[in-house]
């Protein structure tokens, strides 16, 4: 390009002796360049002219003097910052507003520092310690109680019960039978070995049995219906000499009226009300 042809690419004004800006190898006068190519500042909404420093972050632009923390208004030029909901914040403001607070010391967990999370709460790594030995738990297994978090060795030493069956530690849940602790999966019928933790059961000589095994091995049979008499849930039964009846089965052998609380007569293995038994050669 000769001196005679040195014009602004947009307005065609001569650039001889004037400031100009090259864009894609094409010259523009400063006013045209600013009007066509300048970015607009996110803060003041004015164009960032060619003579000003243009600071860019994620496709957005600021004048150098407008690139400030949106909370404390301190300059962020050549300083660490973070973005929150499209706002730029200095490290201190971001920490105060956005960072988690340690559940133990209540101080801010600074961005970039390691934090521990458990049950929706956060700790500094050095604050997340066993309540008993005060050693950091880190990512090791832990057991939580109302009084705090414990490493497994300290929990076993301070609180754990040992299963009466397998002799291993019961870390959670479990049941108690005859004042002794059991894992749920270890509390089994002494007859058929099925789990009893959610079943009705009976005991005999300090051993638990499911109803089927207990009835088969130990339960008395009703003299009327021959079914087992368990006494579960407060069920009542009648005993006379060496025989037993469910209360609902203790009826006159002739008219079937209930004899519970009434006088009765017997003949061989039959029982009768006084009226029906009066014509029978009864025992009493």
TrEMBL record:
One of its GO terms (biological process) is positive regulation of transcription by RNA polymerase II. Pfam families: LIM (PF00412), LIM_FHL2-3_N (PF25076). Residues 39-100, 161-220, 221-283 form the LIM zinc-binding domain. Gene3D superfamilies: Cysteine Rich Protein (2.10.110.10). Keywords: LIM domain, Metal-binding, Nucleus, Repeat, Zinc, Zinc-finger. InterPro entries: FHL5_LIM2, LIM_FHL1/2/3/5_N, Znf_LIM. One of its GO terms (molecular function) is zinc ion binding. It is found in: Nucleus. One of its GO terms (cellular component) is Z disc. Transmembrane segments: none annotated. The keyword Zinc applies. Interacts with CREM (via the third LIM domain). Interacts (via second LIM domain) with SPAG8. May be involved in the regulation of spermatogenesis. Stimulates CREM transcriptional activity in a phosphorylation-independent manner. This is Four and a half LIM domains protein 5. It comes from Capra hircus. The gene is FHL5.
């Amino acid at each position: 390009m000769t001196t005679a042809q040195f014009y602004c690419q947009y307005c065609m004004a001569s650039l001889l002796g004037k400031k100009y800006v090259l864009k894609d190898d094409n010259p523009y006068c400063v006013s045209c360049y600013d009007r066509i190519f300048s970015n607009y500042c996110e803060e003041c909404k004015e164009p960032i002219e060619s003579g000003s420093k243009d600071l860019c972050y994620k496709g957005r632009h600021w004048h150098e003097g407008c690139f400030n923390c949106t909370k404390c208004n301190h300059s962020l030029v050549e300083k660490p910052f973070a973005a929150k909901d499209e706002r730029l914040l200095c490290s201190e403001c971001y920490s105060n507003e956005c960072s988690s607070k340690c559940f133990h010391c209540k101080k801010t967990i600074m961005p970039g520092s390691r934090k521990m999370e458990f049950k929706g709460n956060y700790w500094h790594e050095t604050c997340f310690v066993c309540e008993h030995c005060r050693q950091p738990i880190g990512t090791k297994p832990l057991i939580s109680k109302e009084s705090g978090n414990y490493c497994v060795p300290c929990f076993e030493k301070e609180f754990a019960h040992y299963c009466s069956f397998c002799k291993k530690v019961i870390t959670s849940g479990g049941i108690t039978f005859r004042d002794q602790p059991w894992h749920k999966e270890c509390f089994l019928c002494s007859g058929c070995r099925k789990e009893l933790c959610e079943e009705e059961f009976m005991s005999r000589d300090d051993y638990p049995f499911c109803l089927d095994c207990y009835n088969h091995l130990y339960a008395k049979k009703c003299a009327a219906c021959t079914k087992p008499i368990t006494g579960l849930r407060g069920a009542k039964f009648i005993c006379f000499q060496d025989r037993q009846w469910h209360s609902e089965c203790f009826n006159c052998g002739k008219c079937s009226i209930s004899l519970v609380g009434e006088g009765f007569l017997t003949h061989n293995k039959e029982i009768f009300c006084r009226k029906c038994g009066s014509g029978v050669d009864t025992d009493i």
